[in-house]
TrEMBL record:
GO terms for cellular component: cell outer membrane. The keyword ATP-binding does not apply. This is TonB-dependent receptor. It is a multi-pass membrane protein. Belongs to the TonB-dependent receptor family. Residues 1-21 form the signal peptide. PANTHER family: CATECHOLATE SIDEROPHORE RECEPTOR FIU (PTHR32552:SF89), FERRICHROME IRON RECEPTOR-RELATED (PTHR32552). Residues 40-148 form the TonB-dependent receptor plug domain. It is found in: Cell outer membrane. The keyword Transmembrane applies.
Length: 670
């Protein structure tokens, strides 16, 4: 307990380089699939680098991502989560398909087979860095890059290193990571292993999650090759909502699990071969071929049936891009393609009751074929002004096969075999103006798109139809300022307004709504201020208003949607502020203040969650060359709060937040 006690005594916060160091230019790859300076991109990209990943030592990826502006990831139980990026926290199918989760630019899942908890398939503990685009993803990304995307990037194997970590913490937490990289006979290689186990602070809520990642880079003539593979294994016993107004304030009640039978077991494997080939001084060709396999067994604990769900899909795909560089800019044209075969089985083992018959509810296969072409370019108009733009045309065809009886049984509708196709068009345009030393202004107009997910198309209830369903489209306008000074002071201010059409969600009657409309506007601030050579303040803040722009009467009056209502689970204010102190080279300390503002817990705007504040403390000390001790104290004030507040079926329900927790560890570098 000594290290956390020292942290509690410190009033300073976050890990950063001393102010005297001139920061290197930050290079990102997510905005255009190629390396470019972040400050020169019209697309707003937040970067969480390797040092930040190590400092946070996230027990859940939400801890890491919520440091970025415009991002609010609700932590569920175990590895579960709900995501918001310039959006409300979206659930069900809307949440699954509104954000694109990538590894090295390739989607973790086939877009039409997205999982609302899809980030558990990322090997984030081993990542070299994480890049986050807020708002539509641009021409190089297709369906699901609607509100934003998260790109988890593997470490560069050319950076020779060896690292091992062991961390122990409250509630039986054990985390182990080990990695090695450097030159080999075959090229520059990286291999990493991570494993995490915990008993869970709630009843019947244990977790085991392991990840493996490898990468090999080599050159052959004018071509650079990179072979990469990742695997994830998850075993989770799931604790569910606690019910009753402000039930999260009662610690004994918060620990209870009303569904001890709930679980989630999942596996994911990905392999990809990337290539960059120089054709001439001006022309280059890049691309990747890849394969993925995902499967999951899941108890539908939130339904009266308590049915078992078995899902999975296998994919192969390719990406390609041809780029011409000139003295005034660049032009890229490309084509992407992917084939996926997936399945879903839902089986109820309980005896039949009401609308829930015993036996198979759904059993179907879906083949999906996606093809896309895109073009994007960048041009320097003057020494201070650059413009960029592009567009993507994408089409997806689904071939659905029903493996059980057609028609309705209870509350389940099984369609007969059919085919469906959807086409989307996503343009964007932007500019960056360097109007003074260290200052840039930027603006962008973009459209994000989201084709329907297979769950939304083929997992239906009687009375629902899909013949008129349209892809979601989000039109976005944003503008901002960037300051980046040699002394390390950096600031980015962005204002945005967005309109989303053909919004798909499930209303209080359990009916799929496919013609909704919502509006989103707000402002984001991200900054770093080196106050002295040893003390740095940093953080991110967002103010945003998300509203329904349509009326939806339902039989359950408490969930009637009226135009102008705030979208539920959408705090107006969010911030993550940090101070870091490095009094000597061997000691680093961080304090973090997290604020989640008040928000409505229902669509009718009658139920409210008051919001919360959290303080987290972290520190590390190098005890000898290559050996570092680190510790953290999460929720230092032992605040009673809710990770997620919801109002459903006539009452409040919550995912309670963890009380104060302690962890200590050792990191060895070679």
């Amino acid at each position: 307990m000594a290290a956390p006690a020292v942290l509690l005594a410190m009033s300073a916060i976050a890990v950063a380089q001393p102010a005297s160091a001139v920061p290197d230019e930050v290079i990102v790859v997510s905005a255009a699939r190629t390396a470019q300076a972040r400050d020169s991109a019209a697309v707003p990209v937040a970067v969480l680098d390797a040092q930040t990943i190590r400092t946070v030592g996230a027990q859940h990826i939400a801890e890491l991502l919520n440091r970025a502006p415009g991002v609010y990831v609700h932590r569920g139980n175990g590895a579960e989560h709900l995501t918001a990026i310039r959006s409300p926290v979206l659930s069900a199918g809307a949440g699954a398909g509104s954000f694109l989760y990538l590894e090295d630019g390739i989607s973790l899942r086939a877009p039409a087979f997205a999982n609302i908890n899809g980030l558990f398939e990322a090997v984030d503990e081993l990542a070299g860095r994480v890049e986050i685009i807020r708002g539509p993803g641009g021409a190089v990304y297709g369906s699901n890059a609607l509100h934003g995307l998260v790109n988890v990037i593997t470490p560069d194997p050319a950076l020779s290193s060896r690292r091992a970590e062991l961390e122990l913490g409250s509630y039986g937490r054990i985390r182990v990571t080990a990695s090695a990289s450097g030159s080999t006979r075959l090229g520059d290689g990286f291999i990493g292993l991570s494993a995490r186990s915990e008993d869970g602070w709630r009843d019947d809520a244990s977790l085991f999650r392991a990840g493996l990642q490898t990468r090999l880079d080599w050159g052959q003539g004018a071509t650079r090759w990179s072979l990469r593979a990742s695997a994830i294994h998850l075993e989770q016993e799931t604790a569910t909502f606690v019910n009753g107004f402000e039930a999260y304030r009662d610690e004994a009640l918060s620990r209870r699990n009303a569904n001890p039978e709930a679980f989630r077991d999942a596996r994911a494997f990905r392999v990809s071969l990337h290539a960059d080939h120089t054709l001439s001084e001006r022309w280059s060709l890049s691309g990747a071929v890849y394969a993925r396999s995902n499967d999951m067994d899941f108890r539908l604990h939130f339904l009266p049936s308590r049915a078992l769900e078995f899902t999975g899909h296998d994919s192969i795909g390719a990406q390609s891009a041809l780029t011409r560089q000139t003295s005034q800019g660049s032009l890229t044209i490309g084509a992407d393609g992917e084939w996926t075969r997936g399945y879903l089985i839902e089986d109820q083992t309980l005896a039949s009751f009401g609308e829930f018959p015993q036996g198979v509810h759904y059993d179907y296969d879906v083949e999906a074929l996606t093809g896309a072409v895109f073009a994007m370019g960048r041009h320097t108009l003057t020494e201070a002004l650059e413009i960029e733009g592009g567009a993507r045309l994408e089409t997806t065809r689904f071939d659905y096969t029903n493996n059980t009886d057609d028609g309705a049984t209870g509350r389940f509708l099984r369609l007969s075999d059919r085919s469906d196709s959807f086409t989307t068009f996503a343009p964007h345009a932007g500019l960056v103006w360097r109007f003074a030393d260290n200052w840039r202004a930027f603006a962008r107009a973009a459209r994000g798109v989201r084709a329907p997910q297979t769950d939304e198309l083929y997992r239906l209830q009687p009375g629902q139809e899909i013949d008129n369903i349209e892809p979601e489209a989000l039109d976005s306008l944003e503008a901002g300022l960037r300051l980046s000074r040699p002394d390390g002071l950096a600031l980015e201010l962005t204002a945005f307004t967005m309109v989303k059409r053909n919004v798909f969600f499930r209303d209080a009657d359990g009916i799929n709504v496919t013609d909704g409309r919502t509006t989103h506007e707000g402002m984001e601030i991200e900054g770093v201020w080196p106050v002295t050579a040893t003390l740095t303040f940093s953080g991110a803040l967002i103010w945003a208003i998300h509203k329904y722009d349509f009326d939806r009467p339902v039989s359950q009056a408490f969930e009637v949607i009226e135009r102008g209502n705030r979208v539920d689970t959408a705090p107006e204010w969010l911030w993550n502020l940090r101070a870091s102190w490095q009094p000597v080279d061997a000691v680093r300390l961080e304090a973090e203040w997290v604020h989640v503002g008040e928000y409505f817990a229902d669509a009718a705007n009658d139920a409210v969650y008051a919001g919360h504040h959290l303080v987290n403390l972290r520190g590390a000390m190098q005890v000898r060359e290559g050996v570092e001790l680190f510790a953290s104290l999460r929720n230092a004030a032992n605040t009673r709060y809710a990770e997620r507040a919801d109002f459903a079926f006539g009452g409040y329900r919550y995912f309670p937040g963890e009380p104060r927790t302690v962890s200590v560890g050792v990191r060895v570098r070679g």
